[in-house]
């Protein structure tokens, strides 16, 4: 073997070893200073993060001051995915990101394109080693300096426009100077054109044209690429700058000192340098234009808010900037105007279009006492409102924060791209070195030329940028589309998990139903007028604070009736009321109340039983000692619940209703909306157990609820969905919030998740297939078989196409829209109802042994060691204590297990 081949081989092996140590060796941690009880670190952003390793102490607030000394899309945002914190980094500006690390561990951070990386190490307060793989609790408080969302978005738009303008200018210069060189070389070399002037093929002429392309057009690539290498990291720019620098340097040597090289390798590659850099910048320009649309959701949300408010001060209307409105201000809103802040209606009536916030197309009528949401549109009448939430507390501001938080998080599927990209660029550089050595030592003549061309092609065709973009762009578009549809997705993980859901557990009250009792039926006795019956009953109930009474009074008013004033009102605890109205004695309540006063209720019993079988609460009425009729009050089903449940079942999800109501009521509601399975009589504290039980069956479970007692179950489920009209505790515990309160949002969330995940997988395919196929081709894998080599020019085009394919495909998700719910639902379903006391509901304990449920308190007990046992028609019962057994003995009917798991 020639000495030169040996030297090249040894040097190549040495370079690869040095390369591995350079990129993966120990790094020096950044210096942290403590000022006023806060740990502060200055991080320079210029082609990378300096320092890229930061060590801080647990429990002390941290301020990371990012000094971004460059422009361009890549580093315009920093994301701490494990801490769910992200911040925009305007060019040539210092931006402070505040964190509150309360758990030790190692947390990565990266640029928005996931190409520049850093590491934050949180060391335990006691000085011990960080826990490997620790995950954060409430590890971070999202903060991104003092700029508002509007200012940050405006700065981002201005920077993107400046970048597009700069790239356009550089591409134009590169194309104009490269075209003559490319034309001359292609015509002469490929087509043998003898008419090409010799001066166009002159090396000095080509050098003069391509040098500005190298140092002006390619400057953004070279600066970022070399800086990334200096920071012991590397990205797409590093690969391109290494390849073009090698080609330009070799061509320069041939031009300036051709005598130093053998005659058979005195070939220049100026046209390749010019075309590669021009193509790369053209691809980047197209990417920048395409990516400008991926953040449209945030911009659209910001654009929704009103700029001014018509505030009443000192009896006069004053046009006031919305930022100056304070809680308690009275505001006048005319037809066609936007509602400036979240408020409560004081007077007036109007239909308000809330579609821009809730996604619901139908306007909602608002009266005095109703709440209105800022940024919605008042359509018909005038309203006078009192400001309830302003600034960062408004619903719109919370939506914007939620979208930004989701876009700062990382989907689990992205771990694949992260694992690959961490080693991708060093591996490609090592492969390029190995390719050069292989072609030089065993390749055909001219070996040096072929080795150089193949190594450059390997460097240029590799595209780590596409891998970095594959997931974040789709997540950004997906969460934005969700926000526009009234669905707030808190994290990319929830967005990903939602597409795998196979079991949807629905809380009944406030989720499937409205959550407010209303008057549904009026069944007067023979000879009694319906309107007169309702008028008298409403009069008797007017002074009662019981929810059923309020429902009856509201029902009378909604029907245009004016109840008379009652006299002699008296409430009988647990039974009902009696009062005088229009000269009549009126009794309203249970059958027991009427029995106790000698009223024969037999004409009403059958009607009351039928209403009770439908899941309604019957209220019996007597007038002047005679049975007068039955009224029914029920928590009515939401208008679209049946349609939404039908749509969920079409998505191959099992729908389960979870409720504390009795089996009969639960079965009636489930049958009405088409839910096939019901878990009834579940105590609030046991809802979490039911979710765990379903998960133990191997299911991926979503919990949908709205109450405080739903919060633990929402947190336990794989994906918790909170009804936006519910309690703040439930909303905070959920992964997804449905602002409109409609179950249609659950359907939309799952469909959006499926569409987003499909888009991400397509992006990953585009990113991986280009590299998997292109790199071996560039290295010369097909040359031994068919003599095919890949030109660096074609490699540059393929690399640009890879990133452009990913960006374009992610932008395609912007055309996704919610699908209308199916007409009607399956209300013929006979639900299977399981109760908490059902003897068939045996479970497995932590040790694998079978457990049963105490019918009194609902606790799980081991049948073999339970202190007390009883026999019942449904089978043996087991109790956790003598007290529970005694309670059962005193009222066995109350705690009797269901004889059947199926209820009509």
TrEMBL record:
Xref: InterPro entries: ATPase_P-typ_cyto_dom_N, ATPase_P-typ_P_site, ATPase_P-typ_TM_dom_sf, ATPase_P-typ_transduc_dom_A_sf, ATPase_P-type_domA, Cupredoxin, EfeO_Cupredoxin, HAD-like_sf
GO molecular function, one term: copper ion binding
Keyword Transmembrane: yes
Organism in which the protein naturally occurs: Streptomyces viridochromogenes
Keyword field contains Metal-binding: yes
Ranges of residues in domain EfeO-type cupredoxin-like: 38-122
Family of this protein: Belongs to the cation transport ATPase (P-type) (TC 3.A.3) family. Type IB subfamily.
Chain segments annotated as coiled-coil in the UniProt record: none
Biased composition (Basic and acidic residues): 839-852
Name by which UniProt lists this protein: ATPase P
Residues in P-type ATPase A domain copies: 304-404
Subcellular location: Cell membrane
CC terms in the record's Gene Ontology section: plasma membrane
Keyword terms, alphabetized: ATP-binding, Cell membrane, Copper, Copper transport, Ion transport, Membrane, Metal-binding, Nucleotide-binding, Translocase, Transmembrane, Transmembrane helix, Transport
Bias-annotated ranges (Low complexity): 126-147
Transmembrane segments: 6-24, 171-195, 201-218, 239-262, 268-286, 420-442, 448-471, 764-786, 792-810
A Pfam family assignment: Cupredoxin_1
Membrane-protein topology: Multi-pass membrane protein
